[in-house]
Amino acid sequence: MPEQTIPLRSRIVPALLTGIGGTLLAAGLLTYTTPATAAVPPPPSPTAGESVVPSPSALLSVPPVSAAPSSPAPSGSVPADRVPTRVVIPALGVDLPIVKAPTSNGGYPFCNVAMYDPRLHVPGEAGATYIFAHARTGMFLPLLEQSQVNNGRKMDGMIVQVYTSDDQLFLYVISDVKRHVTSFEPAFAETHETLWLQTSEGFQIPQKLQVVAEPLSEGPADERDAHPTPHPVVCG
Fold first, then answer.
1. How far is Cα 158 from Cα 147, in angstroms, rounded to an integer?
2. Where are any strands of DSSP class E within 90-158?
3. What is the DSSP string of 106-124?
């Protein structure tokens, strides 16, 4: 099935309107989203009426890039210790703390949180910021569900909020939905600031879903908003 890509400029007005709405609602976000801290590991099998798509393998377990990525040098204005700490997609009810991708447990991703790939970049740097989570309830399942409807066209123009450890809020606008992905190389080859979100496409399916977003704005964030308490769970 072909990937759905729509020029960003055709959505800049709705993106800005969405961004304004997301900003106004940010203070009350937890009134209509599921707090990440309240999420629980999914049972071995779905309960009645619950939609659960388990992630069968580590999201990072893909063939290595064919060569070392030629990453641009970090900007001098970006703090050396900056890391992403929270990802919010208001339109999809996604709100997750972000932690570093695990190296234990065979590198299998945690549940109840999103993770960032430290091999790549952080918000504000030239290059890709790569954030991923399981396609499970309370995590990135809404991305997978939306991608299965008209190739994810409805996600085009949605606002993604990424908070960082130095109390900054970055807004991105979704510009591309890539389904059935088997290679990380495009993310490693990225030379301008972008946000990449990844999740799995189903049980024992090696292909992944990638959602790419372009930077829209950056500004200060409340310390409490930028530092949610993560509760990662080792899940299988």
1. 13
2. 94-100, 110-111, 114-116, 128-132
3. GGPPEESSEEE-TTS--TT
* Whether the Cβ atoms of residue 200 and residue 55 lie closer than 8 Å to each other: yes
The residues near 45 (Cβ < 8 Å, ≥ 6 apart) are none
Distance in angstroms between the alpha carbons of the first and the last residue of the chain: 29
Q: How far is 228 from 210, CA to CA, in rounded Å?
A: 24
String of b and e for 44-71 (b: at least 16 CB within 10 Å)?
eeeeeeeebbbbebbbbebeeeeeebeb
The residues of the chain scoring below 70 in pLDDT are 1-76, 105-106, 236
Distances (CA, A) of 130 to 24, 149, 154, 178, 203: 26, 24, 21, 14, 22
pTM of the model: 0.70
Interatomic CA distance for residues 94 and 150, integer angstroms: 20
The pLDDT assigned to 77 comes to 83
Which strand (E) or helix (H) includes residue 172?
strand 168-181
Q: pLDDT of 97-152, one tens digit each?
A: 999 988 776 678 899 999 999 999 999 999 999 999 999 999 999 999 999 999 99
Strand pairing category for 159-164 and 114-116: unpaired
Nearest to 160, CA basis, from 217, 100, 75: 217
DSSP tally for the chain: helices H, then strands E: 4, 11
